[in-house]
């Protein structure tokens, strides 16, 4: 019984061609297809369709790598731009500081040129002094400058700016000096009306915008706009330097004289520096006649 069953076992499928035969057939078919595709391009459409179908898959596979490259490039570009912006900002600040310094030097040179043109006639030399402290109230107009006896500054030395007379030195220390301004109530300055040659005294009245000429007769030849200059009397200020312009003429009832207000030309309220001047204020005495000379 068992032997019969063993003899009845048969393969369900009939065995096909061998593997070698199948490989040969596939190689032949591939060669034919390649020759046909090369000559007639039959597979171009199929290849294009496959490429179109596979493109989304390729993009999805490449997407993480593309995103990583984009982020890396973006971070590098951002870092580079930040560094470049920082460098440009630093250069801009440096250039602005240089420009500010150049502007300040240009203004300073302009002031010094104006002052040198103003002082070239009589003053031998001058020294630029910066204002470091102001003492301003109704009864006291004083300033402290950063020049002193070590620079040759002396008591009574005249001080000017590029526009006119500023004041004079009252106290001197080794590295600083105090100046009294022409607007101080305690200051008196011998002046002359430039148009007519009339001499008088200008007094400060505690006002930076005006000084007064109180001792003029009622019939004095003086008009608004007249230039008031130093007379040179007293030997403190050299003659001919501008003090101010006549602004207003007042005649009080019952008084014989005029009260004349003068607007100072020096920038008393805004100048950051003044010029301390040296000039020859010595007056030579006439020589005594020699023996036998006729005395007129």
Could you give a quick summary of the protein structure above?
This protein has 296 residues and is α+β, with helices and mostly antiparallel strands. It is built from 3 helices and 12 strands; from the N terminus they run αααββββββββββββ.
Explained architecture:
With 296 residues, the chain is α+β, with helices and mostly antiparallel strands. Helices cover 35% and strands 27% of the residues. The chain contains three helices and twelve strands. A six-stranded antiparallel beta barrel has the order 1-2-5-4-3-12. β1 (125-137) and β2 (140-145) form a beta hairpin.
The CATH topology of the largest domain turns out to be Thrombin, subunit H
Order of helices and strands: HHHEEEEEEEEEEEE
Largest sheet: 6 strands, antiparallel, barrel
Regions with little confidence, pLDDT below 50 for 5+ residues: 289-296
Question: Alpha-carbon distance between the termini?
Answer: 187 Å
Task: Tag the structure with descriptive keywords.
rod-shaped; Thrombin, subunit H; 296 residues; 3 helices; alpha+beta; disordered C terminus
Summarize the SSE layout with pairings:
Blueprint: H1 2-8, H2 19-40, H3 44-119, E1 125-137, E2 140-145, E3 158-160, E4 165-172, E5 177-181, E6 188-193, E7 199-204, E8 211-217, E9 227-230, E10 242-250, E11 257-264, E12 273-278
Antiparallel strand pairs: 1-2, 1-12, 2-5, 3-4, 3-12, 4-5, 6-7, 6-9, 7-8, 8-11, 9-10, 10-11
């Amino acid at each position: 019984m068992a032997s019969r069953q063993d003899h009845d076992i048969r393969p369900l499928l009939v065995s096909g061609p061998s593997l070698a035969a199948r490989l040969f057939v596939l190689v032949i078919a591939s060669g034919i297809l390649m020759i046909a595709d090369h000559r007639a391009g039959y597979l171009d459409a199929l290849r294009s369709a496959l490429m179109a179908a596979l493109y989304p898959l390729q993009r999805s596979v490449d997407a993480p790598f593309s995103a990583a490259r984009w982020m890396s490039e973006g971070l590098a570009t951002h870092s580079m731009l930040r560094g470049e912006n920082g460098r440009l900002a630093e250069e801009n600040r440096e250039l602005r500081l240089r420009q500010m310094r150049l502007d300040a030097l240009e203004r300073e040179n302009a002031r010094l040129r104006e002052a040198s043109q103003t002082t070239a006639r009589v003053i031998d030399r001058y020294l630029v002094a910066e204002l470091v402290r102001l003492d301003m109230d109704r009864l006291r107009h004083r300033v402290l400058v950063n020049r002193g006896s070590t620079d040759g500054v002396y008591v009574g030395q005249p001080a000017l700016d590029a526009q006119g007379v500023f004041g004079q030195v009252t106290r001197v220390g080794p590295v600083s000096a105090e100046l009294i301004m022409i607007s101080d109530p305690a200051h008196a300055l011998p002046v002359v009306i430039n148009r007519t040659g009339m001499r008088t005294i200008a007094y400060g009245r505690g006002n930076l915008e005006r000084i007064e000429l109180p001792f003029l007769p009622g019939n004095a030849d003086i008009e608004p706009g007249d230039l008031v200059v130093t007379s040179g009397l007293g030997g403190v200020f050299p003659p001919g330097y501008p003090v101010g312009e006549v602004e207003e003429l007042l005649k009080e009832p019952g008084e014989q004289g005029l009260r004349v207000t003068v607007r100072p030309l020096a920038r008393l309220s805004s100048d950051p520096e003044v010029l301390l001047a040296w000039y020859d204020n010595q007056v030579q005495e006439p020589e005594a006649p020699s023996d036998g000379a006729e005395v007129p």
